[in-house]
Amino acid sequence: MKTLLVTGGAGFIGSNFIRYMLDKYTDYRILNLDVLTYAGNLENLKGIEEGKNYRFIKANISDRNAVEKIFEEENIDYVVNFAAESHVDRSIEDPEIFIKTNVMGTQVLLDVVKKNWMLGKDETGYPIYREGVKYIQVSTDEVYGALGKEGMFKETTPLAPNSPYSASKASADMLVRAYNETFKLPMNVTRCSNNYGPYQFPEKLIPLMIANCLNDKQLPVYGDGMQIRDWLHVKDHCAAIDTVLHKGISGQVYNVGGNNEKANIEIVKLIISTLGKSEDLIKYVKDRLGHDRRYAIDNTKITTELGWKPSYTFEQGMKETIEWYLNNKDWWENIISGEYKKYYKKMYEEK
Ligand code: NAD
Ligand code: DAU
């Protein structure tokens, strides 16, 4: 039995990943370490029972004692680090927590992992680790900065993060790289494009637009709406992380993209037409500061070297996603009407 520590497993991608892994590997034990920020929601894991295969631990990745304790109690083989502050707009308003969680938290994880997986040192002083252990850092295409009309991000593209969020993610990537170079820690970094699908917090473009459309509220489109993102269904992302965890060559970075470049306004109009609403709901608002114009991922390395490829077309993925939000109104209405309401209201007052 392998034991996998998932951090940030009560968030959007982490909770989808836990479901995916519990379904696929019935003999794995999954530990979910999450501090439950505004974005962490145990409702995302509804139906998953605590027991032999699953345990939830409320803790902060920046809390060294708490992380150490988990390693003392459990025989962990793999760590997949999703825990992060993930929203770009919030990082523009208040960057500090992004550095604390995304950078310092990652460093704590790396230190504890290194200490606990190390068996001894070789004659040159490099650590020797237990067989079969690995650390995965879930990163983002935003670390590469922005593209013009042409080109795609490759794993070799220099890092040029533009927002406090992406700068914090790039810093974490550099730390993971350093732990591999200096301490030979078995690791991979994955850098993926914009995810969408069930359980995405309704501050992100797609769930926000679906919720607002259903409530006949304005749809705030930043700037001219012609910014381009590559969209990846969260289930395809989960399969990619599974592939990298089991087949990735230690020390390597893998880009993960869905081959689905879309302008924001196209997506907003697709949601409006699918829900039978009027384009009058669209409101062009002040642009995001430092707004990256275009992202595009070249996923040749993971597809050719590891055999992963996305299975969703954007049309199918969006159809299923919109249906999910229609069938799970309670889930997002609960968020919009709770503590999050204050931020949600502030967002409207400012736009
Ligand atoms: P999310 O905001 O939905 O979830 C983040 C989770 O991390 C929450 O459950 C939160 O409670 C937890 N968390 C935050 N700070 C923590 C801390 N200090 N200790 C423990 N837990 C903490 O984020 P998401 O969209 O699921 O993203 C997950 C990861 O994937 C992030 O690292 C993000 O940078 C990366 N990523 C996301 C996307 C995307 O499109 N959503 C794309 C590329 C990369
Ligand atoms: O590219 C990967 C990244 O994708 C992840 O690393 C981040 O964690 C994740 O939040 C996401 O970042 P974005 O900034 O691209 O996602 P967001 O949903 O905030 O915005 C998507 C695009 O839509 C972006 O160009 C800004 C625009 N937008 C967003 C919101 C919330 C609007 O036009 N209006 C809005 O109200």
TrEMBL record:
Gene3D superfamilies linked: NAD(P)-binding Rossmann-like Domain, UDP-galactose 4-epimerase, domain 1
Top-tier EC class: lyase
EC nos: 4.2.1.46
Catalytic activities: dTDP-alpha-D-glucose = dTDP-4-dehydro-6-deoxy-alpha-D-glucose + H2O
GO terms of molecular function: dTDP-glucose 4,6-dehydratase activity
Species: Clostridium tepidiprofundi DSM 19306
Keywords, sorted A to Z: Lyase, NAD
Entry coiled-coil feature ranges: none
Gene name for this UniProt entry: rfbB
UniProt cofactor(s): NAD(+)
InterPro entries membership: dTDP_Gluc_deHydtase, NAD(P)-bd_dom, NAD(P)-bd_dom_sf
Domain of life per record: Bacteria
UniProt keyword NAD, yes or no: yes
Name by which UniProt lists this protein: dTDP-glucose 4,6-dehydratase
CDD domains reported in the protein's UniProt record: dTDP_GD_SDR_e
Domain NAD(P)-binding: 5-321
Family membership noted in the UniProt record: Belongs to the NAD(P)-dependent epimerase/dehydratase family. dTDP-glucose dehydratase subfamily.
